[in-house]
UniProtKB/TrEMBL annotation, chains A, B:
Species of the source: Marinithermus hydrothermalis (strain DSM 14884 / JCM 11576 / T1)
Any one GO MF annotation of this record: glycosyltransferase activity
Entries under Gene3D superfamilies matching the protein: 3.40.50.2020
Protein name per its UniProtKB record: Phosphoribosyltransferase
InterPro entries given in the database record: PRTase-like, PRTase_dom
Length: 175, 175
């Protein structure tokens, strides 16, 4: 299987290539299970978190270890927006995602407990890979609606040209 | 809102109560975003991981920070079984979950890359909260089918009487 090398700090990983359409190959970023890579990315990304940030916000699933490590380094809490309604959710805030890469529209769900925690907070949004920017855009809308202010939008990797401005560590090519 | 106190090591949290049916109240464990609690639970749980373990295995989503911290402490990798098919998955292994608590059957998905990583490995299964044991049971079936041996089943919290034997740190009451 062909692979693509990514280097973060002094750590290199060869990631597999995913072929969503014939002739289009994309490096497949999925570092769930790779503690070393999550820590290296977190160390690099926290340098871009504004000091005024009260809380980090992400969407499940693959970004969770990254944001968890960033929160640990910064000593700040984080909020994980869900992509499925959970049985215990009470009066959740919901937000539709328009996403080209997923083919179908997704919905973000945030339990009211977390909505209340975001009120009047300064939030930095973090996603592992930003492509169309649809998830980042929906996350920003949801966080605004919860009464928080977005002070930064960060991604570990950028693939293509997202429709929102995002600070990313690395560019991923289309091969 | 009524809360229930949980204590892990020298850390106490008051968690909200969830009322799935009138008159039945359950402590709601959801420590996504709480770095301190994930670390405290991981420190307590790694003592129950057999030394022969090659890999930790969990199912998304809420258990991820816990297993990530355990993997970091142990210097071992982990695998996250998904509950939704992802677009990049190639020839995934799938396994149905029979779960009373969720009301509907769920399906576990594991991309072939990770199936291959589990072959001939000794796996410790970890879940944040075990209730009916349905997810744990399905996880074990899936890991077996991938060619791995399950050497332990661990949970941070046990609620009720699961149909599989699980080592848990704490019992959660039905109030």
């Amino acid at each position: 299987m062909d692979t693509y090398p990514i280097t973060i700090g002094n750590l290199t990983r060869r990631v597999p290539l995913h072929e969503p359409f014939p002739g289009v190959r994309l490096p497949l970023i999925d570092f769930l299970g790779d503690v070393g890579l999550a820590k290296a990315l977190a160390e690099a990304l926290v340098k871009h978190v504004p000091a005024e940030t009260d809380v980090l916000v992400t969407a499940e699933t693959s970004s969770i270890p990254l944001v968890h490590e960033m929160a640990a380094l910064l000593g700040k809490p984080y909020v994980v927006v869900r992509k499925r309604r959970r049985p215990y959710m009470h009066d959740p805030l919901i937000q539709e995602v328009e996403s080209l890469t997923l083919g179908a529209n997704e919905v973000l769900w945030l339990d009211r407990r977390y909505v209340e925690r975001l009120l009047n907070q300064k939030a930095t949004l973090v996603i592992d890979v930003v492509a169309s920017g649809g998830t980042m855009h929906a996350l920003e809308r949801l966080v605004h609606r919860a009464g928080a202010e977005v002070v930064a939008r960060l991604a570990a990797f950028r693939q293509g040209t997202p429709k929102v401005e995002v600070v990313a560590l690395e560019e991923l090519p289309v091969l």
